[in-house]
Amino acid sequence: MREFDYQRAHDVSGAVALLGADPEARFLGGGTNLVDLMKTGVERPARLVDVRELPLDEIETTDDGGLRIGATVTNSDLAAHPEVRRRYPVLAQAVLAGASGQLRNMATVGGNLLQRTRCGYFADVTRPCNKRVPGSGCPAIEGEHHNHAVLGASEHCVATHPSDMGVALAALDAVVSYETADGRGELPFADFYLPVGDTPHLETALPPGALITGVTLPPTPVAARSRYRKVRERASYAFAIGSIAAALDVRDGVVHDVRLAFGAVASRPWRAHAAERALTGAPADAEAFAAAADAELAAARPLRHNAYKVTLTRNLVVAVLSELTSDTASDPTSEATREHPSAATEEATR
């Protein structure tokens, strides 16, 4: 590990100034990803700017009824927050699926969003990797790639984004707030992660030197009936081989509103817009769910050893949407809550 300086920031503007003064500095939140990469030599910052004690650890209701989550809120506190559990259960479930309890106690919301899209070749500094050294190649394409991307990849990189939280945030149309030396800004979550293209080393659309200050969830009544499902190769803490964040509003047997996002299939959390379009106004049944999944997965380009992800994702769509449909049909409050979404949120979590 490279020797580095350490400095604790006491306010947002001071943190931004410290990073701006040193191009080799990095912000440090919980360190659950960054420190690991420093130990292997992948990340080699000259200075760490600790932002854990910045006043960004609150979860607050916004004026329009959404929720604002500070960047230094820990994953554990996010998953346990009553408003998150009641109004956005898919997010609480995704966070709880994401890591061990010890890691959730340390990891922060801002840090989770900035964890690197990676695979074994990225973590091994003895091997080429276009994310570490642009132009050096992507050995995963012909090598070990059973858990790599089937959507949105390129010949330059086929790694997948590891965040479970990010999949839920993609489905919820979250907005990321940040601050730079030039002032404050926002990025819709759909624009936050960059496509792989021929620059896989560039992962987010954040301006240089930006500090994430929070994430805002818009008021989304359909989110009260939502679910996150993760499939992994072992029951204990592990990255997904496939996951889905889903929210569903069914009225009179027809899909009125639906949100879908997939994890472990692309370099970023994958919002399933084609599937959503196919489902809106369609019958809420397994046949329509499967057809919608097929519409989204028509763009899949699997490698030799990961085609199973297409079938796995299709099955997840059908299974989770069928469960949400069954939950809605069995809930006697569902008719009343069409007029009073907040009541649906409370009832769904009792």
Describe the structure.
This protein is of the alpha+beta class and 350 residues long. Helix content is 33%, strand content 19%. The chain contains 14 helices and 12 strands. Helix 5 runs antiparallel to helix 9 (165-171) and helix 11 runs antiparallel to helix 12 (286-297). The protein is globular, with a radius of gyration of 20 Å. Residues 332-350 have low confidence and may be disordered.
| Widest sheet: strand ordering | 4-5-8-6-7
Counting DSSP E segments of at least 2 residues, the number of strands comes to: 12
Output mean pLDDT: 93
Strand residues, percent: 15-25%
Helicity level, as a percent range?
Answer: 25-40%
| Gyration radius, rounded | 20 Å
Amino-to-carboxy terminus distance: 49 Å
Largest sheet, strands/sense/barrel = 5 strands, antiparallel
Give the uncertain stretches in residue-range form: 332-350
How many DSSP H or I helices? 14
The ordered H/E elements are EHEHEEEHHHHHHHEEHEEEEEHHHH
Coarse morphology = globular
Alpha-beta content class: alpha+beta
Descriptive tags:
single chain, alpha+beta, five-stranded antiparallel beta sheet, four-stranded antiparallel beta sheet, 12 strands, disordered C terminus
Would you summarize the structure shown here?
With 350 residues, this protein is α+β, with helices and mostly antiparallel strands.
